[in-house]
Amino acid sequence: MYGRFGGIDIVSIKENFMTEIEPIPCGSANVYIIHGNKESILIDTGTEKYRDKVLNACQCANVRLILLTHGHFDHCQNALYLSTSLNCPVGISAEDLELLQKGTKRKVYGKGIWGNIYTWVSNCNIKKCKIDPVDSITVLENEMSLQEYGIDGKVIKLPGHTIGSVGVLLQTGEAFIGDAMQNIISPSMAWCYEDYEKAEESVNLIHRINPKKIYCGHGKMFGL
Ligand SMILES: [Zn+2]
């Protein structure tokens, strides 16, 4: 079953299991709450400017996990604040853990004139933005089930934009892909990446999975 309820997409009702997706626009970045029956997962956290907006949206959601698609500041700058406020762990891949916990700055690259301009701005922002380390970490593995957090879905590795980028694939066929792809002008690979070949492979993987709907870190939801 699929329908609209308030500002929320109801994407699945099966055998008493319901999933609702609540987008929380945070400037140029998207944050999402995946609501299960009783528990929920927060996908990414936005920048510091939006921390209270995200916290307010989470107040009645019983968030059990804050899942970071990757370690860039516009996705994880509120991880410590929200983890402390909501009393739940933060999930991130082992490969991106150093971006969050040590504040390591890794460069991104781009192609073409526009790609290089965008990448230059991105690297300046990455360099100057601070990310607070988090106390409670859950390391995300490929194919890790999210059922213990109340969501019928799993983690999928989507490396390339960062080496440790991950997404979430719901049993219902919806996917959250962070910055593995974007939909700013039209759906495409992210304009900047740490490893171009891996980023391309991840886009190919998304095409092979062929999700029913794709929720990305920047831009509107899309289908393939
Ligand atoms: Zn990013």
Can you walk me through this structure?
It is a single chain. The strands form three sheets. The chain has an eight-stranded mixed β-sheet. The protein has a four-stranded mixed β-sheet with strand order 9-10-11-14, with no helix packed on it. The protein has a two-stranded antiparallel sheet with strand order 12-13. It is globular. The chain has one domain: Ribonuclease Z/Hydroxyacylglutathione hydrolase-like (Metallo-beta-lactamase, Chain A, 4-Layer Sandwich). It is built from six helices and 14 strands. Helix 1 packs parallel to helix 3. 25% of the residues lie in helices and 31% in strands. With 224 residues, it is of the alpha/beta class. The model is unreliable at 1-6 (pLDDT under 50). Zinc ion is lined by residues 70, 72, 161, 179. Residues 70, 72, 161, 179 line the site of zinc ion (ZN).
Short characterization:
With 224 residues, the chain is of the alpha/beta class. The chain contains six helices and 14 strands.
- Can you give the mean pLDDT? 93
Query: Oligomerization state of this entry?
Result: single chain
Strand content: 25-35%
| Bound molecule kinds, no repeats | zinc ion
In DSSP terms (H or I, runs of 4 or more residues), the helix count works out at 6
Q: What is the CATH topology descriptor?
A: Metallo-beta-lactamase, Chain A
Name of the CATH class? Alpha Beta
> Can you say what the CATH homologous superfamily is?
Ribonuclease Z/Hydroxyacylglutathione hydrolase-like
Please tell me how large the radius of gyration is. Answer: 16 Å
How do the strands of the widest beta sheet line up side by side?
A: 1-2-3-4-5-6-7-8
Characterize the overall form. globular
User: Can you name the CATH architecture?
Assistant: 4-Layer Sandwich
Order of helices and strands: EEEEEHEHHEHHEEEEEEHE
Q: Separation of termini?
A: 20 Å
* Structural class based on helices, strands and sheet pairing: alpha/beta
| Topology, number of strands | 14
- Tell me about the biggest sheet? 8 strands, mixed
Q: Enumerate the spans where pLDDT stays under 50 for 5 or more consecutive residues.
A: 1-6
